[in-house]
């Protein structure tokens, strides 16, 4: 393992496990970074904490990798997601044979983010929703829930990529589902509630959910700036303006209280030198 890189594993059986408990464990792990003195949290009007993630290190590697081992235990299927701790981005996954796959392109077109010793293979696909599913709006109506999670784990567990090939459309859709059910649900309250409400049936996010996930950074930074936790420490703006993009009808988030009804984990500012 590279010096300075910590890996924490969370194990979750998508068929037999409790989804709500899994998301709470993931959120707790993301909030408990070191040094403990750097941890911050914003408390909403109901006295519920909303942790601030560690300073962003992108495009460099994070201080911690969160390995999320998703199982269909009765069938012997397992895939491990590699998630950054500073922005909760899914960077790659491992199949049941131990082979890592990473978003990006071969031939020197992409910098490798996963540690070199993991010997990852590029998926020939960008990390954003545009590359994965042709645009974030294609998430609208995409099936979510226990059985979609089971099918995604089956697919990634058995995934193998032919030399010179790239990730297929079916696998991309499964990756998009897992990003929503794991990463977006950890970040955002309505996304988690939507998945949880439809876990044993079928759920799907609506168009407004997509606008909200596009604006996770803007909501996070608006809250931090309003509370005097701006990008320059110890300097507080007097009445910082609320971002105009958050006032758009499709978003309609007008103040800190409304933002905290949506955002559970607050995206931090980039660290110095990043």
Domain module tally = 1
Strand content: 15-25%
Label the overall shape.
globular
Q: Alpha-carbon distance between the termini?
A: 22 Å
CATH architecture group name: 3-Layer(aba) Sandwich
Q: Largest sheet at a glance?
A: 6 strands, mixed
Give a written overview of the molecule.
The structure is a single chain. Strands 1-4-5-6-7-8 form a 6-stranded mixed β-sheet. Strands 2-3 form a two-stranded antiparallel ribbon. With 274 residues, the chain is α/β, with parallel strands linked by helices. The chain has one domain: Ricin (A subunit), domain 1 (3-Layer(aba) Sandwich), CATH 3.40.420. 38% of the residues are buried. The protein is built from 8 helices and 8 strands; from the N terminus they run E-H-E-E-E-E-E-E-E-H-H-H-H-H-H-H. The radius of gyration is 18 Å and the shape is globular. Keywords: Hydrolase, Plant defense, Protein synthesis inhibitor, Toxin. Its EC number is 3.2.2.22. Belongs to the ribosome-inactivating protein family. One of its GO terms (molecular function) is toxin activity.
Topology at a glance:
Layout: E1 6-13, H1 19-31, E2 40-43, E3 49-52, E4 64-72, E5 77-84, E6 90-94, E7 100-102, E8 121-122, H2 129-133, H3 146-157, H4 169-187, H5 189-197, H6 207-214, H7 216-226, H8 256-260
Parallel strand pairs: 1-4, 7-8
Antiparallel strand pairs: 2-3, 4-5, 5-6, 6-7
Helix pairs in contact: 1-4, 3-4, 4-5
Family: Belongs to the ribosome-inactivating protein family.
Catalytic activity: Endohydrolysis of the N-glycosidic bond at one specific adenosine on the 28S rRNA
EC number: 3.2.2.22
